[in-house]
User: Which sequence fits this backbone?
C-alpha cells in the first residue's frame, strides 16, 4: 500500500507541474487564480498522503484543513477584489 | 493480504486520480477562461472528494478518519462556491465567453 501511495503522490506532483504552466503563461489574472486554486486542491491530498508516510496522519490532517480554508478564503477574496476593480 | 477496505480505498483513490487528470487536461487545453473553469471546478471537486474518502477508508474508523471526511465535505461545499465567485468576477470584469466562428455573427 505504501508503494501505491508513493505512486499516487508522484502522479499528483506531476499534475501540479502541468498546472504550473497555466499559472506562468495563462493569459490574464483570472486564469492564474483558477490554476492556483487547482494547485491548492492537489496539495491538500498530497499533504495527507505524506502523513501516511510519516505515520503521523493526525498532525498532517490539521495542516491540510488549514490549507483548504486558506485556499478557499484566498480565492474568494481575490475574486471579490477583482470584481470591484472592473 | 489485502482486506476489503484496502481494495475499496485503492479504487476510490484511483478514481480521484483519474478526475484530477481530466481536470488538469481541461485546464490546459480549453480555449478560454469560462471553459477552463468548467473543467477544473467540477473535476477537482469530485476528485478531492473521492481521494479523501479513499484515504479515510484506508485510515479506518477513528477521529482522524472522521476529520478527513469533514475536510471532504467542506471541500465539496467550498470548491463550487469559490468557482462561482471567481466566474462571476470574471463576467463582471468583462471577459468574453468563447464562441465558435460561425456563431459569432
Assistant:
Amino acid at each position: 500500500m505504501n508503494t501505491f501511495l508513493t505512486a499516487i503522490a508522484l502522479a499528483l506532483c506531476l499534475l501540479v507541474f502541468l498546472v504550473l504552466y497555466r499559472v506562468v503563461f495563462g493569459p490574464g489574472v483570472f486564469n492564474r487564480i483558477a490554476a492556483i486554486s487547482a494547485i491548492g486542491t492537489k496539495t491538500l491530498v498530497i499533504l495527507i498522503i505524506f502523513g501516511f508516510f510519516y505515520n503521523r496522519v493526525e498532525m498532517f490532517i490539521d495542516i491540510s484543513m488549514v490549507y483548504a480554508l486558506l485556499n478557499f478564503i484566498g480565492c474568494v477574496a481575490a475574486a471579490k477584489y477583482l470584481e470591484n476593480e472592473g | 493480504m489485502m482486506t476489503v477496505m484496502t481494495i475499496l480505498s485503492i479504487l476510490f483513490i484511483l478514481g480521484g486520480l483519474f478526475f484530477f487528470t481530466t481536470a488538469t487536461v481541461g485546464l490546459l487545453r480549453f480555449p478560454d477562461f469560462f471553459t477552463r473553469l468548467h473543467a477544473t471546478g467540477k473535476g477537482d471537486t469530485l476528485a478531492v472528494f473521492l481521494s479523501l474518502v479513499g484515504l479515510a477508508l484506508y485510515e479506518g474508523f477513528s477521529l482522524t478518519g472522521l476529520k478527513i471526511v469533514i475536510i471532504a465535505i467542506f471541500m465539496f461545499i467550498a470548491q463550487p462556491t469559490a468557482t462561482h465567485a471567481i466566474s462571476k468576477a470574471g463576467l463582471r470584469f468583462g471577459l468574453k465567453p468563447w464562441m465558435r466562428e460561425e456563431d459569432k455573427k
